[in-house]
Fold these 2 entries.
Entry 1:
Amino acid sequence: MKLRSLFTVCPPLLLLVSTGHAAVSTGNAFYGDAPDATHPWAIHDRNRPQPQRVEPGTASTATQPGRPPSDAIVLFDGTSATLGKWEADTKAGDPTAPTKWIVKDGALECVPKSGQIRSKELFADCQLHVEWAAPTNVQGDSQGRGNSGVFLMGMIEVQVLDNYNNPTYADGFAGSLYGIAPPLANALRAPGEFQAYDIIFRRPVHRDGKVIDPGYVTVFCNGVLLQDHTPIEGPGGHMKRSVSTPFPEQGPLKLQDHGNPVRFRNIWYRPLPPRQMEGALSPEATAAKRKEIAATLRADAATLAAGSTAAMLRFAESLCYELDAATAAQVAKMAASYVASVKALAGADLENKKGEITNVTKAFQYLAKFSLVPKDFAATATLEQIAKAQGWDQPPGKQNAKKKQ
C-alpha cells in the first residue's frame, strides 16, 4: 500500500455494516463530503458532537414573566434575593456599593438620580433577555419619557425609551443601538406594559491593533426584529460619532438611570460559544482536530472484538482523518482475513452474509475510489467476483431467477 496516497481525501463510506458499538454520534460513517484542510468534519459526520440538550422556557404574559431556558443564568427573577446580583455602577477604583434601586411588585425599579447599576456577573457573547416597562403615568416627550438603557458589557447601549406615540431622533429610538443604528420598526406596547427584548450580542474582536470582527447586535422587541446582525461601530454615545475600539474580554450588564422610574423583570442570559473568526478553521487547527478524531476512532476500534468486521471498518474510518501507516497496514491485513473467511462460505451460509458482504464491498470500493487503498485492492476485486457469481449485482428480480437456475 502506498501511504502517500492514503490521505488524498476521505471517502463517504455509505451503507457500512452496523458495528453494534455506539459511535460518538449517530448515522452512517462518512456519508457526505469529506473533511478537508480547513474542515475537520465530513458533511453529516456521525462523529460530530451532538448539540447540548436545553429545556425551553416559557413565554411571558402581560402580567406574568416567563420561565428561562434550563441553561440560562438568571440575573433577576423578581425576588429581593436576585437584587443581590446587582451593585451601584461606581467609578473604577472606587469601592463597590449596593444598588439603591428597589424591588417592587416583582420588578426591579429605577430610583431616579440614584445612578445606573451593573450586574456583578461578567460576560461577553450572549443571548440576553430583558423585559422592561415605562411608567404608566406618562410624562415628558422625546428623550424625556420613560428613558433608560441596556448597556452590553457596560459599553454599547440598546436604548430603552417610551416611544409609544412619542417620536424622537431615529438613532435614539427604543431598540436602537444608541447613536449608531435606528431600529427597523417600532414594536412597543402601551406605557406600563412590559416590553421584551431578546438580544444576540457578539463583542468586537481586535488583534494587534486591527479589527478581526466588528461585533454584531441582533435585537427583537416583542418578537419583532429591530436590529438585524447590526455591526458595532464602537460603544456609541451622545452627540459624538462612535469609532471602533477594542472591548474587554468580559464586562457587566448595566441598566441606566435617566431620571425615569423604568421597571425591569425576567433578566437572564445564555453564554454563546466562541466564534470561528475565519469561518473555517486554520489548517493547523483542522489537522489537530482530525488527529484527535482519528485517535478516538482507533481507541474505539480497539475495544471491539479483535479481527471483527466492526473493528476493521472502524479502523478504516480513522484513516479518513489521519494518515497512519500502522493503521493502514492493519486495515489491509484485516481485509485480507475477511475475504478469506467469506471465500470459505457456501450455500445458505454465504447467502446469509449477503448484506454484510455487499456493504463491506461498497466500503472497499469507496476506499479505493478515494485512494485510501490501491485501485487494484485485492479484497475489493474478490468480493466483487463473489457478488457477481451469486447474482447480487443484479436487480432483485434477476437475482431470484439466477438462484433458480
Entry 2:
Amino acid sequence: MYFIEVQEKNLLVSPKLFYYIGMNTTNLVPRGFYRTTILIGLGFFTLGLMDPLYDAYVPLFLGDYLSSRFLIGLIMTLDNVFALFLIPLVAALSDRTKTSIGRRMPYIIVTLPLSAIFFMLLPSGALPRGSLMTLIVLLFLLNLAKQASRGPVVALMPDLTDKNYRSQANGVINFMGGIAAIVGTVALAPLIDVDLTLPLFGSTLRSLPFLISGVLVIVATLALFVFVKEPRNSLRQGTTDDEREKQVPLRESIQRIFGVGSQNDTSGRYVLLALFFWFLGYQGVLPFITTYSRDVLGTTEGLAGLSPGAVAIAYAIFVIPSGILAGQIGRRKVIRLSLLGIIIVMSLIYFHYPLSRAFGLDVTTSWMSFLGLLFFFGMFWGSVVTNSFPMLWHMASYETMGIYTGMYYLFSQGAAITAPVLAGGFIDWGTYVLGPTGGLRTMFLFAVLCMSIALGFMLKVTRES
C-alpha cells in the first residue's frame, strides 16, 4: 500500500492523507471515507429495513381479506405509484429548500420517523383485530411518508460526496441496504410468530418484527441527523462553474438517451428497456415468495418470511465483488451473464416442487433447497442491479446526468407498478388452469419470460461502459 499527500479540496471529509490501492488512481479515496459514507447510508439502511418485511408480510395481511392474487398485486403497487411521483417531486422541493440544518435533512427527519410509526401500526389492520379499511389506510399513510423520504435520502449522498468517489459510495450504500434486508428477513421475520404482551401494544403476534424495525428506523434517523451535517451552500461538490451553467433542453436530452437522430447512440434506449423487463420479472416474483413458501412448500409464516432473506444475503455478499468483476470484463458482459443465470435459476425453481415430491423430500429439506436456489438468484440479481445504474451514468454526460437518473427511476418504478398486477393475473390464470399449487409456480415462468426479453435487449447494447 502506498501513501501520497494531496491538497484538500471539495472532499467529503478533510483529510490530507489518501491511500492508494493497487496501481489504479480511480481507487483513491479519502481517509475516513467509508466511516462517513456509512453514516450517510443510514437513510438507505432504514428503507432497506422496512422494504423486505413489507414485501414479505403485507400480501399475507391482505390475504386475510382478499382471495384474488390480482387484487393483492394491485394494492401492492401502491408504494410504487407513490414512488413514481413523490421521489422526483420531494427531491426537487428539497433542491430549493434552505434551512439551518440543510436542504435534505428537514424532509428526512420528518418523513422517516412518520414512516416508522405507520410501519409499527401496520399489523393492526390484519386479522383478528383489524379491518380491510384500516389496513388500506395504514398502507396509504405509510407509503406516503416512506416514498416522500426516499428522494431526499437518495440525494443526500451525491450532495456530500465528491463526484470522483460516488461509485465507491454507491457500493457502500448498496451494501448497507443489503445488510438491512438481511436484518429484516433473517433476524426479524421469524419473530412474526412470537406472542408476547407489551404495554400499549398488547399481543405481539404478527407485529413484533414491525415494532422492532420501527424503533430501529427512528434510532437510525436520529444518528443520521446528529452525525451527518449538510453544507449550507446548495452547490454540489466536485463540479465547475462552467458545468453548472451548461444546460441542455429536455427534449434534446431525451433524444440523446433514446438514440433519436443519426448522431446518437441507441445503447441507452436498450439499457432502459432491458431494465424495465428485469425489474418486471423481479418485482413479479418477490411479493409472492413468502406466500409460495407457506402455501406450496408448507412452511410456517415465520420460516416463509426468511425466503426473501436468502436473496438479500446473496445480494449483500456479491454486491462489491460484482463491481470488481465488471471492472475486469465490463458491465455489459456481467449484466448479460447474470441475466442468463437468473433465467436458469428461475427455470430450476419452477421444477423444484414437483422434483421435491418425486424424490420424497420432507418440508424442511425441500425448503432449504429452495433457499439455495434463491441464494443464486440473489447473487445474479445483485450483479445486475449493482452495474445497471453505473452503466447509465457512464453513458451520460454531465449535462444529461439528471435526465438519465430520472429515466432510470421512471422505467424501474414503472416496472414495479406493473409487475405485481401482471404477475398476480398470471398466477390467477395459472390457478384456473393448473390449480392453486401450479398457479403459484407460474410466477417463476413469468420471471423467465421477462428476464429473457431483458437479455434480448441487452444483446442489442453496443456501447461498453
